[in-house]
Design brief:
CATH architecture of the largest domain: 2-Layer Sandwich
Largest sheet: 2 strands, antiparallel
Number of strands: 4
Shape: elongated
Order of helices and strands: HEHHEHEHHHEHHHHHH
Mean pLDDT: 80
Structural class: mainly alpha
Number of helices: 13
Strand content: 5-15%
CATH class of the largest domain: Alpha Beta
Length: 288
């Protein structure tokens, strides 16, 4: 009985070696010849979006349906052999024809997603920004505008007032699909704080205003002035009216919060009873 043990161990070792060699062979084939398993439907710049928390099997199915790969099982096998089953990242990807399975897998593992460069113009409201980003498929417009008015988020970002309006800095941003509305809002507010001069509070105090009032006033001047050279004149008019406790009579405030896209301001708008309408009340509105 004892004499037969080495023979059994030798047999087991041979089986394990064969399995190991088989695994190595499969991996080598998938890595080197995996391009044969690509789908012929993948055209130039085929774009696929992998939602957050998507499992590897669903990722394989998504790639198969998009024509990026021909065999989901080959993709899963290589992901298993590479130890990548739990390392594939969500996001929006662009795949080129001729990419091998290994190249596709490494791209997903590294998270090399598409970056969208978006320019936010000066004078855009939160609603305008929401529409612009929704057009790029980066946000849900309704959720974006709702979060911009969310009291908890506003407070967490150290923004005075009830909304983030006026604190979403106009700039060019590099954004990725799947970042989420809240993350984008946080990035824009952080950029606003970075752009403020270090003595901003002191400058506001010299004007007899607090920081929030200065932001509000600057926002009104931005919307009222059609050209850069008109801003000093508009600012002087507003400052004089504030000192005299006169209504500022700023047209953009009359239509602030009105549903739908921007349009021509009418006499009915000037009589709209809202806290922001500076035709009906003196002083600054509640916020930018």
């Amino acid at each position: 009985m004892a004499a037969s043990l080495p023979t059994r161990f030798r047999g087991l070792s041979a089986i394990l070696l064969a399995l190991a060699l088989t695994a190595v062979g499969v991996r080598t084939y998938l890595q080197s010849d995996g391009d044969r398993l690509l789908g012929t439907g993948a055209g130039p710049g085929t774009i696929v979006y992998i939602k957050p928390k998507t499992g590897v099997q669903e990722i394989a199915q998504t790639l198969r349906e998009a024509g990026i790969i021909q065999s989901r099982w080959a993709f899963l096998a290589l992901a298993y052999l590479q130890g990548s089953l739990t390392r594939l990242q969500a996001g929006e990807y662009e795949f080129s024809p001729g990419m091998s399975l290994l190249e596709i897998l490494r791209k997903l593992e590294a998270g090399r997603v598409i970056t969208h460069q978006v320019a936010i113009p000066e004078g855009f409201t939160a609603q305008d920004i929401a529409r612009l980003l929704a057009g790029e498929r980066l946000v849900n417009a309704e959720r974006f505008t709702a979060l911009a008015k969310d009291p908890q988020l506003v407070e967490s970002l150290a923004v005075p007032g009830d909304t983030l309006e006026g604190y979403l800095f106009p700039d060019t941003y590099r954004l990725t699909r799947g970042m989420g509305e809240e993350e984008i809002l946080r990035i824009m507010v952080a950029r606003f704080h970075q752009a403020l001069p270090k003595d901003f509070d002191l400058q506001a105090e010299r004007l007899g205003l607090d920081a929030h009032s200065v932001v509000t006033l600057a926002s009104l001047i931005e919307k009222e002035a059609k050209l850069d050279r008109e801003r000093p004149l508009v600012a002087a008019v507003f400052h004089n009216r504030l000192r005299r406790n006169m209504p500022l009579q700023s047209d953009p405030t009359a239509v602030y919060g009105a549903p739908g896209p921007r349009r021509r301001i009418t006499s009915l708008d000037l009589r709209r009873k809202t806290p922001y309408n500076t035709y009906l009340k003196a002083g600054l509105p509640p916020g930018p």
